[in-house]
């Protein structure tokens, strides 16, 4: 008990005397601030991207693509394949007894990104009108649905913010074909909001796709159960198809930025070595400037353990303070920032930086580590400071 | 006893502090060197683009096809020295998650337009003669351990053969080098003819055209002639200089430059704070000594220069070490990860680093140096 109260007294004393070492302490705090802000910016970018895509897929929808095609863009499905799969067991039925699916096309078209003014790829998805109902939380927020057979498109809500020229009522040109924006839709913030939707058959004819499709979305009778469809595909030797739940498909696509996470960690760890040097420097200076004080405490009966923990605590407090400020900065400046990057289907995926509590924790742990290591060696020195020498040096 | 000797003694009097500040500087310049080398490599697609080369793509988007007949129509345009077709294959070797940059091309015209692909005459001839031949860049060959003469299957995640297979069989006829060390050799080329005859759909369509003009001055004219020629057809085109095309392509990924610059800025900010602070502290601790030196007749200007030299030396030493580490690191990355574009420590990076080191030395030394310059001997002694 006595030891604990000693430690507590020394910690409080050290923290209260921080203003005396203001500039060195600020330097240590700032270095950690920057490291944590950099780390969390990278992580919240990758996290926001993954969240957007993971949130997009539903577990009760199956997505069928040509075998080995990896993404919707690369896939091609013949009318025959679509028909064959539509009658497989496990495919849900609509109210009027028809197989519940949407055969879709995925055409890449140009758009102008507002932030840079440059041309980028965005997807124009041809869907069966019934395909509209295969997305969770989908609704038209302005205007109306496209009419089958007409050159009309509806535009995802996020497209409006990122790319210019897709406002309601605008005419859009893709090559020679002209299309009118008749509606805006939302899907609750998922990746579908980065897309343009039109009638699949109209897209087939305008883009010379014959009667071929690219992917098929199927409502499953049992969520997550693909066995019926898989069996049907295996049984037909003319079919070489992959089937996944939509949730699986998008979760895989969400991994596209996992290298960003690695780069973010690599840079932050190297930077934290720099910050560590700063912390050590600050703490050694602090021990040196407090050596008289430490010696006095020792002389009146405080143990060297209290000197050790007092110094360690000072370092940890500085680092955690830096970590908190860094996290706050990245929360203020990065969290909620919307941007877009090239996704696995070679089109822009619009996403929002998202700083989650789990990431915040990682940032604070890194700060804590810098504080503990940066405080340990100086604390060791403080604990072993010979009382006589300390008095002599300090005078 | 020279001034240099005093500066050196001052710098090294607290070895631990010297080590820590050097280390912080070292880290910042390691980050700076590596990231800048990466940025230069990243931009090389734009910087190495030839001025006399154009790219013609479908106006809707470059992933949309063009008819193969366009090649001959463009060849007849005045000012066109050579034209070739390219088709993205979506190839992968064994691992579907690792895409190859693989194009179906018309070999003779391809080599004419893209002179950064360097083959020996023997390899070149072997490839042109061999219907199922391919040429691979040094970097790709290193990644997969390919050698000339190997027979390999390559899968496509887009196309399939008429018999339903998605794998094509190839013989490696050549491993090409880049024209300059910066040239990215992460690509594979094979014959369009083989591709066109075997694929199950999309026959007689191509991805885009590569054009070499007789003179960059004629670019504008060629662009206009080509795009006007195909206006109001089902396949309208858009022709742009290669530089513009590559830049647009890179920008699709996002503002990488902004990210990299922010990281470098953050790293420099950290050491500026750490090193600057230690310098102020170090000089403050020496207030008495400086006062003594002034009393002994050291001119203020001389002391000012000595302190600045100390911070400069610190920055140059730490920065130099960091830059060496960055050179080693980029060399390591380039030799161990052939899938990355070659990272090179160019002269301009070294010069820029030197500039930053000097700036850093000045910034961290200027406050203590000015303090020493202004130091009043009487107040300094009375403070003791």
For the structure shown, list the relevant keywords.
heterodimer, A: 395 residues, alpha+beta, eleven-stranded mixed sheet, 12 helices, 13 strands, 49% helix, 20% strand, B: 384 residues, two-stranded antiparallel sheet, 14 helices, elongated
Shape estimate of chain A: elongated
Mean pLDDT of chain A: 91
User: What's the helical proportion of residues of chain B?
Assistant: 40-55%
The structural class of chain A is alpha+beta
Sheet-strand content of chain A, in percent, reads: 15-25%
Apparent shape of chain B: elongated
Largest sheet of chain A: 11 strands, mixed
Could you explain the architecture of this structure?
The complex is a heterodimer of chains A (395) and B (384). Chain A folds into two domains: 2-54 and 256-394, no CATH class; 68-239, no CATH class. In chain A, 49% of the residues lie in helices and 20% in strands. Chain A has twelve helices and 13 strands. Chain B is an alpha+beta fold and 384 residues long. The relative contact order of chain B is 0.19. Chain B folds into two domains: 3-45 and 255-383, no CATH class; 60-235, no CATH class. The longest helix of chain B has 37 residues, at 300-336. Chain B is built from 14 helices and 13 strands. In chain B, the strands form two sheets. In chain B, strands 1, 3, 4, 5, 6, 7, 8, 9, 10, 12 and 13 form an eleven-stranded mixed beta sheet that branches. The model of chain B has no long low-confidence stretch (mean pLDDT 91). At the A-B interface, helix 2, strand 2, strand 3, helix 8 and strand 12 of A face helix 2 and helix 10 of B.
Q: How is this fold's topology laid out?
A:
The complex is a heterodimer of chains A (395) and B (384).
Chain A: H1 2-16, H2 22-54, E1 61-66, H3 79-86, E2 101-113, E3 119-127, E4 139-143, E5 152-156, H4 157-162, E6 163-164, E7 171-174, E8 177-186, E9 196-199, H5 200-206, E10 215-219, H6 227-235, E11 241-245, H7 246-253, H8 258-289, H9 291-299, H10 304-333, E12 338-342, E13 348-352, H11 357-384, H12 387-394
Parallel strand pairs in A: 3-9, 5-8
Antiparallel strand pairs in A: 1-10, 1-11, 2-3, 2-6, 2-10, 4-8, 5-9, 7-8, 12-13
Chain B: H1 3-11, H2 15-47, E1 53-58, E2 66-67, H3 70-75, E3 80-88, E4 91-92, E5 102-105, H4 107-113, E6 117-118, H5 121-129, E7 133-137, H6 138-144, E8 151-156, E9 167-178, E10 188-191, H7 192-198, E11 205-206, E12 208-213, H8 219-229, E13 237-241, H9 242-251, H10 256-285, H11 287-295, H12 300-336, H13 347-374, H14 377-383
Parallel strand pairs in B: 5-10, 7-9
Antiparallel strand pairs in B: 1-12, 1-13, 2-11, 3-5, 3-12, 4-8, 6-9, 7-10, 8-9
């Amino acid at each position: 008990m006595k030891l604990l109260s000693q430690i507590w007294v020394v910690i409080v004393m050290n923290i209260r005397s921080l203003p005396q070492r203001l500039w060195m302490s600020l330097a240590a705090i700032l270095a950690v601030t920057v490291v944590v802000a950099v780390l969390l910016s990278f992580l919240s970018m990758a996290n926001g991207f993954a969240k957007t895509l993971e949130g997009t897929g539903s577990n009760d929808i199956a997505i069928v693509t040509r075998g080995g095609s990896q993404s919707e863009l690369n896939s091609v499905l013949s009318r025959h394949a679509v028909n064959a799969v539509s009658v497989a067991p496990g495919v849900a039925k609509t109210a009027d007894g028809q197989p519940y699916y949407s055969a879709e096309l995925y055409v890449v078209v140009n758009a102008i990104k507002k932030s840079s003014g440059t041309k980028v790829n965005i997807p124009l998805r041809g869907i069966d009108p019934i395909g509209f109902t295969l997305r969770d939380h989908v609704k038209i927020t302005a205007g109306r649905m496209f009419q089958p057979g007409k050159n009309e498109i509806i535009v995802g809500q996020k497209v409006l913010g990122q790319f210019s020229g897709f406002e309601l009522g605008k005419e859009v040109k893709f090559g020679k074909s002209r299309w009118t924006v008749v509606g805006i839709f939302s899907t609750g913030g998922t990746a579908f909001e980065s897309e343009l939707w039109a009638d699949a058959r109209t897209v087939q004819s305008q883009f010379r796709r014959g009667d071929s499709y690219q992917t098929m979305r199927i409502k499953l009778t049992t969520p997550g159960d693909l066995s019926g469809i898989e069996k049907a595909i295996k049984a037909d030797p003319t079919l070489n198809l992959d089937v996944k739940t939509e949730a699986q498909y998008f979760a895989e696509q969400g991994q596209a930025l996992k290298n960003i996470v690695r780069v973010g960690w690599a840079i932050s760890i190297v930077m934290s070595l720099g910050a560590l040097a700063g912390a050590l420097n600050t703490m050694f200076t602090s021990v040196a400037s407090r050596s008289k004080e430490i010696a006095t405490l020792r002389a009146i009966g405080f143990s060297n353990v209290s000197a050790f923990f007092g110094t360690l605590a000072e370092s940890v407090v500085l680092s955690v303070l830096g970590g908190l400020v860094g996290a706050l900065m990245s929360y203020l400046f990065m969290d909620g920032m919307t941007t877009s990057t090239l996704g696995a289907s070679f089109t822009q995926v619009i996403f929002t930086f998202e700083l989650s509590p789990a990431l915040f924790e990682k940032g604070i742990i890194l700060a804590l580590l810098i504080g503990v290591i940066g405080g340990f060696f100086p604390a060791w020195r403080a604990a072993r400071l010979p009382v006589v020498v300390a008095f002599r040096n300090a005078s | 006893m020279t001034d240099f000797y005093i500066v050196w003694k001052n710098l090294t009097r607290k070895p631990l502090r010297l080590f820590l500040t050097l280390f912080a500087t070292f880290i910042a310049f390691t980050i700076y060197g590596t990231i800048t080398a990466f940025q230069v490599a990243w931009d090389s697609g734009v910087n190495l683009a030839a001025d006399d080369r154009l790219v013609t793509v479908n106006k809707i988007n470059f992933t949309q096809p063009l008819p193969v007949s366009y090649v001959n129509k463009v060849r007849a345009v005045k000012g066109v020295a050579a034209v070739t077709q390219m088709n993205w294959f979506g190839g992968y070797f064994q691992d579907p998650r690792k895409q190859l940059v693989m194009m179906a091309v018309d070999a003779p015209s391809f080599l004419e337009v893209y002179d950064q692909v360097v083959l020996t005459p023997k390899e070149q001839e072997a490839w042109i003669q061999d219907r199922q031949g391919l040429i691979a860049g040094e970097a790709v060959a290193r990644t997969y351990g390919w050698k000339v003469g190997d027979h390999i299957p390559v899968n496509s995640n887009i196309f399939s053969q008429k018999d339903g297979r998605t794998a094509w069989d190839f013989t490696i006829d050549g491993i090409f080098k880049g024209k300059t060390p910066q040239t990215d050799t992460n690509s594979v080329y094979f014959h369009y003819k083989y591709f066109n005859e075997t694929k199950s759909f999309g026959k007689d369509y191509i991805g885009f055209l590569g054009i070499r003009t007789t003179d960059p001055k004629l670019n504008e004219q060629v662009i206009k002639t080509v795009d006007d020629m195909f206006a109001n057809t089902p396949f309208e085109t858009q022709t742009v200089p290669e530089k513009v095309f590559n830049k647009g392509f890179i920008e699709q990924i996002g503002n990488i430059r902004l990210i990299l610059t922010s990281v470098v800025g953050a790293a420099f900010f950290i050491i500026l704070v750490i090193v600057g602070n230690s310098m102020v502290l170090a000089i403050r601790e020496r207030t008495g000594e400086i006062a003594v030196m002034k009393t002994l007749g050291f001119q203020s200007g001389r002391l000012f220069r000595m302190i600045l030299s100390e911070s400069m030396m610190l920055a140059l030493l730490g920065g130099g070490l960091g830059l060496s580490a960055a050179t080693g690191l980029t060399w390591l990355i380039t030799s161990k990860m052939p899938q990355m574009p070659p990272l090179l420590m160019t002269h301009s990076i070294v010069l820029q680093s030197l500039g930053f080191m000097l700036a850093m030395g000045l910034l961290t030394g200027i406050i203590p140096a000015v303090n020493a310059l202004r130091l009043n001997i009487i107040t300094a002694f009375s403070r003791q």
